[in-house]
Specification:
Helices cover about 40% and strands about 10% of the residues. It is built from 4 helices and 2 strands. A two-stranded antiparallel sheet has the order 1-2. The protein is globular, with a radius of gyration of 15 Å. The relative contact order is 0.16.
Length: about 110
């Protein structure tokens, strides 16, 4: 049986940083501290974190992570992503545990 895949939420919990900060570190954003980036990078390497899917030349991905999808804000963000990717092949996936769980919902959408 294979080991469960490491999720960004797991890295956030292990490092004590928010899911947003972990995502920023993974995507090379400059608006986090060097200390946070180093700690998150160490955790990503130590756990063998792998992004879902492989990028192919010319194809970009947008991954949107929400704690809950039952807010107007979340729906507006998704509507904007779909509007901007309307001329590109688009797919969506979600993963959610029990309704009371605090596990984030992840939606991966290919960008144009």
């Amino acid at each position: 049986m294979s080991e469960p895949k490491v999720r960004l939420a797991d890295i956030a919990k292990d490092t004590g940083y928010s899911l947003a900060t972990v995502s920023k570190a993974l995507n090379g954003r400059s608006d986090i501290s060097d200390e946070a980036r180093a700690a998150i990078d160490r955790a990503l390497k130590a756990t063998g974190y792998q992004r879902r899917g492989q990028k192919t030349a010319g194809q970009r991905y947008i991954e949107v992570v929400f704690q809950d999808l039952d807010t107007i804000w979340a729906l507006e963000v998704l509507r904007g992503v779909l509007r901007e990717t309307r001329h590109s092949p688009t797919s969506a996936s979600s993963r959610r545990k029990a309704a009371h769980a605090s596990t984030p919902t992840t939606t991966g959408l290919p960008a144009c």
